[in-house]
Amino acid sequence: MGWDANVWEDPMEFRPERFLENGDGDQEVVFDLKGIKEIKMMPFGAGRRACPAITIALLHQEYFVANLVRDFAWTAENGGDIDLSEKQDFTMVMKNPLRVHVSPRTR
Ligand code: HEM
Question: 81 in the Ramachandran plot: left (φ > 0), alpha (ψ -120 to 50) or beta?
Fold first, then answer.
């Protein structure tokens, strides 16, 4: 699925910006990351040959995020308060996706 040109435009090209929102400031999400409308990506596969290490891989990702929180200072992009408004999606999500400024913590 990840390499299928019927699913992805130029599937073999490394283009992380395909996952970004529109650059024009509105919050329209170009890529349906949560698979609400369709599923285009299954990072760990599915079924009998799905990744048997999904649990350890997700645990490592939590560890990775925890390290980012520990080592960097996170502030709202515009310096103001963080808008914690929610909206119901497949799960409860932030109404306005979080955009932050990240800088190394001084210890
Ligand atoms: C973020 C990390 C990882 C991702 C995204 C990932 C993803 C995948 C995917 C897509 C498959 C193929 C599933 C399919 O054919 O349907 C796979 C298979 C597999 N993965 Fe992972 N994996 C990750 C980490 C790991 C780790 C850490 C290990 C080992 C410690 C591991 C061991 C395996 C093994 C042994 C298979 C083959 C399973 C089989 O063919 O029966 N993976 N993984």
Answer: beta
